[in-house]
Amino acid sequence: MLKQLLLFVFLLQISNAADCPICPRGGIWSEWTSNGVCATTCGACSNLNYTRTCLSDGLKNCPCVGSTTITQPCGTQACNYPRTNGPGAPCCIGTPKIVNNWYHCASTSQTTPTAPCCPTGGVWSDWSSWVQNGNLTEYTRTRNCLSGGFSCACVGESEETKFECPCTPMRTIYAGSTACAHLTSKLIHNVREPYMDKALCRTYYAMEATDFRNDFAFYSAKYNATMSTAAWLDKAGRCTIGNFPGSYTNTNGAYWRLGFKCNTTSGAWYNTWPAYDIDMKEVALFAQLYTPK
Ligand SMILES: *[C@@H]1O[C@H](CO)[C@@H](O)[C@H](O)[C@H]1NC(C)=O
Ligand SMILES: *[C@@H]1O[C@H](CO)[C@@H](O)[C@H](O)[C@H]1NC(C)=O
Ligand SMILES: *[C@@H]1O[C@H](CO)[C@@H](O)[C@H](O)[C@H]1NC(C)=O
Ligand SMILES: *[C@@H]1O[C@H](CO)[C@@H](O)[C@H](O)[C@H]1NC(C)=O
């Protein structure tokens, strides 16, 4: 049993290229491929264009070095007939040479780059968007192993299923955060943490609706509407400020509910008011703003 296990481990090791922890020199390229059909079947008498793509684009700081297209002789097997026995040469380019028990035209061996080593864990494509499974609270996303063609197996699952809303719960920006201080002189109101409806995949904020204690609402002549101001941060911590319709100015201590939908591509939240030129996109953290009285 142990012997079998060891053999298995050994096979696993030789079937993979060596491990490389970070980025191999020159990046990781796919194999050369061509959509074309070679005009001749032997003698390296024709050319084909080949292209390849950079697989390590998906890794941080691992750009590929080299060209993405190449023109190479194709149909490189030496001609047996009529050229070998006839007047023509068996090769248009080079001389016949035995490679892997086959006659090839010597100078035309294909440039077949191989990965010098495998990045740890392989190279995965980005995850697809989450796709909801019918009416169920079940979301699935997939990804592909890009380095698989290089015998660099990927570690991890190629499919992930969640039985709840795939968006990361939104949080509040607390008073004292300086993330938006360069964009506004208004202050952050400590709204309570948002409520997330995991089944319907919505998030709701309780917004202070009145100017009872501080100035939350203001009248916009441009839109002939009572507006509120909000600040929101995306996942990278970038702040955006925007005015949006809603709120009242004369009902003491009233609250109103602001809703967000889940963006299943990015896993963040959004809300839009097309008529008011405001687009809350990629919201990860959120705050209501006010002017102190
Ligand atoms: C092959 O590449 C060359 C140079 O980039 C280009 O001129 C030629 O049109 C290409 N041939 C085909 C069949 O795409
Ligand atoms: C979703 O639920 C509704 C109402 O229960 C039903 O009419 C509809 O066929 C369902 N759709 C799917 C894709 O299951
Ligand atoms: C502004 O809106 C109010 C009510 O919504 C309306 O009665 C009023 O005529 C509007 N004013 C302008 C200038 O459009
Ligand atoms: C959803 O996220 C994707 C990817 O970040 C983005 O391109 C798209 O604009 C977002 N959609 C909405 C409605 O926010």
TrEMBL record:
Leader peptide range in chain numbering: 1-17
Keywords from the named record: Signal
Top-level taxon in the UniProt lineage: Eukaryota
Record PROSITE patterns: TSP1 (PS50092)
Transmembrane segments annotated in the record for this chain: none
InterPro entries: TSP1_rpt
Protein name: Fibrinogen C-terminal domain-containing protein
Organism: Caenorhabditis elegans
